[in-house]
Amino acid sequence: MLNITYHGHSSVQLGTENKSLMIDPFLRGNELAVTKPEDIKTDVVLLTHAHMDHILDAEPIAKANNAKVVAIVELATYMSWKGLDTLGMNMGGTVDLEFAKAKMIQAFHTSGIVLEEEQRIMYAGLPAGFIIDIGGKTVLHAGDTSLFGDMKMIGDRHQIDVAFLPIGGHYTMGPEDALQAAEWFNAKLTIPVHYDTFPAIRQDAEHFVEQLASKGLEGRVLAPGESISL
User: Fold this and answer.
1) What is d(CA 192, CA 209) in angstroms, rounded to the nearest whole number?
2) Could you tell me the mean pLDDT of each successive run of 10 residues in the chain, 230 residues long?
């Protein structure tokens, strides 16, 4: 059994009966979120890249739960400087989390930490997505990305049960490109993420799901805080 909770933006929590992992925790900065960082109970935090709307709550959640933070090596190193227990990995690698396995896949985006006071941007490794085997299911979290042709290869090589795809546009692919990505990944269920948090990424997620249905694909919109079980 796999339990999935969507916390808004790109924040997704995947859990089994007694273990869970959290992807890209961003709660305090999201007015649509209904969950606070102190409400999260998790064993592992996965980070797709270093932008603030994906790592803001990684530190408090990891410290409160004594959770391991998994990210590409540069971002993992940065998080280790904050006193966190980290596991650095790189593109194409797979890590065994005991209750889950996570493979890092490519994403086309940027990744850096903006140091406002210094007027400097710190390189934080490549952006990524994850393919996670957990609770007898295979889950793909695409991270922040544009459309790229190798999505078809990834879909051909993996039997994906659930795919989380950004649809917001402006900073990531929009609904039209995400529809093509959904076809290539060919997941049994596609759930849109990374939309409506800011004015620039407002989208009609229900219409996106209708478009998926027209392609013979199943989609579902989850509200922040909503959970499903598979």
Assistant:
1) 8
2) 97 96 97 97 98 98 98 98 98 98 98 96 98 98 98 98 98 98 98 98 98 98 98
- Dihedral angle sign, alpha carbons of residues 39, 166, 94, 56: negative
* Alpha carbon distance 27, 35 (integer Å): 7
Is the Cβ–Cβ distance between 203 and 167 less than 8 Å? yes
Give 72's strand partners.
89
Among the residues of 94-225, which ranges form H helices? Answer: 150-157, 175-185, 205-214
User: What would the two tokens of residue 24 be?
Assistant: 């890209």
Residue 126 has a pLDDT of 98
The b/e string for 72-86 (b: 16+ C-beta within 10 A; e otherwise) is: bbbbbebbeeeebeb
Looking up tokens 């939309």 gives 195
Residue 188 neighbours by CB distance under 10 Å: 14
* CA-wise closest residue to 160 among 178, 142, 176: 142
d(CA 69, CA 86): 5
Other beta carbons within 10 Å of 110 = 15
176 — alpha (psi -120 to 50), left (phi > 0) or beta? alpha
Is the full-model pTM beyond 0.85? Answer: yes
- Integer Cα distance of 167 and 30 in angstroms: 17
pLDDT one-digit tens code per residue, 33-43:
999 999 999 99
Residue type, 224: P
Residue 82 DSSP SS3: coil
